[in-house]
């Protein structure tokens, strides 16, 4: 008999139980590559991944206040290329009837213990039924870590030269290759290039799927810091706009240029970016609306740069999209060349237009006392959970 009150099941048709249907669940509070890493490893264990997302109320009761609301967190999970189904309002303590309803034989979670408000293992019910599988937790990243960076206003996480780091650190390079896989998590997917401003050239770092002759090449760029629902919705709308304009063509080949830490800090100051270049790049790589990424992309996509990447891709860039956010620098328009070339397309306001890295930091700072208390409790809770893990 379960000691946990059962959460009512959603009013959706039940699905037959299958070993190939996998369940993961969590808070997914502002998207980071640790969340994506869990979904990737889970997807590799099956063919269909259902992702349970806890409500704001359940998270507050068991862990502390959320930074992002449920709609914003669902948006992030929907955008992950390894997620097949988002399930909002999933119970904080994973329940067997929910697994059965969605046809999921197994639950996957990282190699750490997560506890509820009473200090009990959130996966105790599925462990008792031998329906629990463990994957490696992504090291060095968590929502708690990122909140700490905001509250302490530190810059130690910034990376001076991401390309050099990738060449020197095999584990980091392997992670890039993992996140560049396709929606199965098993085959090549996204191309990864690095841009060298001194040579004005692009070099392929990870080989993925090249565009077909029929696909339109679309360029977007940005910092993509804290990979928020505002940035995700912009990318989704880029794909949707291209589909509407060209319904007879295959989906567009979206290339995302990612600025380095120095460039973003120069524009925004303080301790931005909150996520370093590695963390931001992995967030963009896991997104289903992006086909390829270019690391160290310049702040201004000049005519020379756009022609260079067209040569590297092997096909001409046919549009440059930008979201509704205002330009940071007071001098000039970074998209002047794109406009002159007739490539510039503006995406208008949308339901998540107001959500960006600055918004998230403001939310943390505005509720500083609550989040500092959450950090303190999380530290105590983490020590207890670590003890449970190693018992």
Automatic annotation (TrEMBL):
Gene3D superfamilies in the cross-refs: HUPs
Entry keywords, A to Z: Lipid biosynthesis, Lipid metabolism, Nucleotidyltransferase, Phospholipid biosynthesis, Phospholipid metabolism, Transferase
InterPro entries for the chain: CCT, Cyt_trans-like, Ect1/PCYT2, Rossmann-like_a/b/a_fold
UniProt keyword annotation of Nucleotidyltransferase present: yes
Pfam families, alphabetized: CTP_transf_like
Cytidyltransferase-like domain sequence ranges: 24-147
EC number: 2.7.7.14
Origin: domain of life: Eukaryota
An individual GO BP term: phosphatidylethanolamine biosynthetic process
Keyword Methyltransferase on entry: no
GO MF annotation terms: ethanolamine-phosphate cytidylyltransferase activity
Gene Ontology CC entries for this record: cytoplasm
Annotated metabolic or biological route of this protein: Phospholipid metabolism; phosphatidylethanolamine biosynthesis; phosphatidylethanolamine from ethanolamine: step 2/3; Lipid metabolism
Protein family membership: Belongs to the cytidylyltransferase family.
Entry protein name: ethanolamine-phosphate cytidylyltransferase
Species this chain originates from: Orbilia ellipsospora
